[in-house]
Amino acid sequence: MNPIPRLFRRTRRYSDIDISVNEHIEERTDELIAEGLPRKQAEQTARREFGNVALLQQRSREQWQWPALESLLADLKFTLRRLRKSPGFGITVLLTLAIGIGANTAVFSVIDGVLLKPLPYPQPNELVSLWLDAPGAPGLANFQNGLRLSPSMYFTFSENNHSFQSLGVFVPNTANVTGIAQPEEVHTLLITDGILQTLAIPPALGRWLSHDDQDPHAAKRVILSYGYWQRRFGSDSSVIGRSLQIDSQTCEIVGVMPRGFRVVDRDFDMLVPLQFDRAHVKLAGFGYDGIGRLKPGISTAQANSDVARLVETWMHTFTNGPGTNPFYYRLWRISPAFRSLKQQVIGSVTNVLWVVMATVGLVMMIACVNIANLLLVRADSRQHELSIRAALGAGRMRIARELLIESLFLGLTGGILAIGVAYAGLRLLVAFGPANLPRLSEVTIDTRSLLFTLAVSIVSGLLFGSIPALKYAHARAAAAVSANRTVSASRTRQRSRNVLVVVQVSMALVLLVSALLMIRTFASMRKVDPGFSDPAHLETLVVYLPDLLVTDPIVVTHVQNEIAEKIAAIPGVTSVGFSAAVPMEGNDPNWDEMSVEGKVYPGGEPPMLFFNYVSPGYFSTMGTAVAAGREYSWDDVFGLRNNIIISENFARENWGSASAAVGKRIRQFKSMPWQVIIGVVQDVRHNGVNEKAPETIYWPAMLQSPYTHEPTIDGPRSVTFVVRSKRAGSEALVADIQRAVGSVNANVPIANPATMQDIYAKSMARTSFTLTMLAIAGAMALLLGIIGIYGVISYAVSQRTREIGIRLALGAQKAELKWMFVRSALVLTIAGVAIGIIGAAALTQSMKSLLFGISPLDPLTYLTVPFILVAAAALASYLPARRAAGVNPVEALRVD
Amino acid sequence: MSRNSDNRDLFPGALEIMILQSLRHKPMHGYALVKHIQQVSDDLLQVEEGSLYPALQRMLREGLLQSEEGVSAKGRPTRIYRVTNAGIKHLERELSSFGKMFDGITRVLAFSQS
After folding, report:
1. Does residue B5 lie within any of the structural domains?
2. What residues in A contact B77, CB-CB < 8 Å?
3. Which of A42, A694, A755, A827 has a C-alpha 20 to 30 A away from that of A320?
4. Domain CATH number, residue B105
5. Is the residue at B19 inside a domain?
6. Quick check: A20 and B53 CB within 8 A?
7. Interface contact A529, partner B, CB < 8 A
8. What's this model's pTM, rounded to 2 decimal places?
9. Segment A812-859, tens digit of pLDDT
10. Which residues in chain A are contacts of B61 at CB distance < 8 A?
11. CB contacts < 8 A (A, B)
């Protein structure tokens, strides 16, 4: 039978059944009366014989129903009606759930997008990142990830390996594009053959760069990103074959990559072929990121051992130039440490994200506990009703089901609301998240997130619903119907709420401890002197002078000098300087060895040191204190006077103090002249405040290159200008600077304007993000905990009013009564604190890598948090306790 | 959908056969049906009301019966049940399989007695 009309015809059927049954009973009554029974007795007998009329009618109706579903619907209707009667309860619970589940969904979406989903390339599990390990390289410990590849390694590995389908290297760069409109700086990625083959994403238009394009003598060809193609060419498909002026060089456009295509995690405007000259590449130059696609069935370990044997081949094939020993690198013990590309992309955020996920998970659990508590109170007030229903024959399952339906309904409705919260939360996360959060573009609320929301809604619904359901399904009919006349609350009733409070306090403690640890970390990071001062008034921007624009390196330095002078003349600018790299930007201009005159090095090799290249006035502009000696002057720079500036830690290590170092001599290679130390500057935390300041050699902005055979003058072509001004951070200043730069050379754009404060804050983003998340979670947990304690105590007070009345009548002191309630709250809190401390001690171990300057068992934190919790519990219980003491015994005892 | 919760007296289908057979003889209301079966079986079979009404509803749903408004002997409104053509066909099918089963049982019982 068709189910739909059946539904409509049902009402008639139901009345048919009732009519039939009534007739039946009446006929039997008539019969019994005819047999001589009085009417009343006859009616009773007829009914008794017939049995349970209601049940029978129900059974008969069920023939027309889907009983399971319909009784569910009936329960649901009942739930809705009850919720409508207490909107305060409903709104509280739904809001709590919406926020709790929403936060979880948002964080899950991030974790899913960043950590769990495979990379957006075909067969992503074949992709590996080509990093090397070099435990013997002095000073290399500073490279956090190990050693990258050099061009000669690229040739050796790509030509001789047996384990890769393809491999290649790339390096991010910038280029000046001229000839379209304004000169513009674009982000390029220089790639070798093998990169596109490895990633295996076909172009949207045109073709890939080919093997032939990386011939240094071939015509220059480039591929555009989808975004750049849209922006600059209005998605014109005739762009293929057209030419662009890139760094003053004519380049042909051969392809456009599809929307969303990135190389590993790098966005770019253009892909430009790396054109290494195979005949002239050296062993060194370990600055290239390598990726490769393994042959099917080859493991990373197999690839490691395959390439390990090629390290020898590499040293046999290439050299660092005449007079150098290619087997020097044996000391470095170079070995491949390839890792899955995904692991490489995700990097260090894994820890942060899981900590945040655990945090919001904990808050959700606390919220569930609170809701469970509310539901318990609610179910308690229904005790009477539930008992009557049990007495009338409702099974345990039936009652448990109804309670569970209520909580599931709450859970699911909360889940639906949570989707909105999650959208908002995700925007917040993306806005406040660590700036370098990888794969951010892949984070969305998708089916997986929605399934997660559904799962969380159901699980939390079951979680907070099962506690009252388990309890009240056992409500015995007998105890019940006789009204609630016991004087004090039964122990079992209070006990489950007490356990919930203990659980809640312990979870709140874990969160508060984590939050406080992060706050202390942040504080100790803020206390570290980064090696520069007042970063809010330092504007930084990058200026790049490509080969073809300014050929002579000496002229490059002169142009840079001229630009510095023009900027210095801008109103409101106090001072100007530039360097190859400013601190905390993740940019290392160079690392190489440096030997101190008269010092004997174990193993014969001096350690590698961090090199930067600076202009006169750079240190005074940055606010980096000169500890001894002086800064460079332009005469030092242009005079090539073999003067050098070093960092204080390097001075102290070698000569005991900064002042003792001035006048001493160091040199890079034996073939190079000695450099006289003219200045020692304060240590700079180049890699962020939480990393040690590297021992640094500051070369002048122009110098004799140590890397060429014939004497050559060299200097950095891409430099960051630092400008100290009260106007730093304003658009107007940047515009003034652009005009100043343009007045020197109209074809030179400026890039990446940012204040030093921005850069500083960005380098702390991971910490401040974790801190914010944990602080919010900790505050929520504390608030929920206070509400929990308050709720339990005030309910206990209301349940025990009569008992209090009796106590007062018998002469109990009010202070004692108050203390009785506060004490019970404190006992629960202390139990929770004890459990929480154990939990926190265990859980915060996983936060170790996020902490700075304090231990995960920081005693101050572990003293403060319990104190806060106990104080909060005392307050939360004192309020209802005061109410208890205010009870008027006469009235209390008069109640029913 | 499982609807076997109905307690069918004797063995599955027996109550149904008796209802169909009785109603084929003459359309009746519920109480009359109980009385009829009781009388015809000389009080050997007592139909439980708890089974009868759900069974009637089920047979209505399956289209074996029709119900119509009517009045009882005492003039009170009630519902009269009548067998449909489908019901008669069903009854005949059931009767023949019932007959076969009964034959089988009789033979087996006769065998063990001899």
Report:
1. no
2. 19, 23
3. A694
4. 1.10.10.10
5. yes
6. yes
7. no
8. 0.68
9. 888 888 888 889 889 999 999 999 999 999 888 888 888 888 899 999
10. 1, 63-64
11. 73
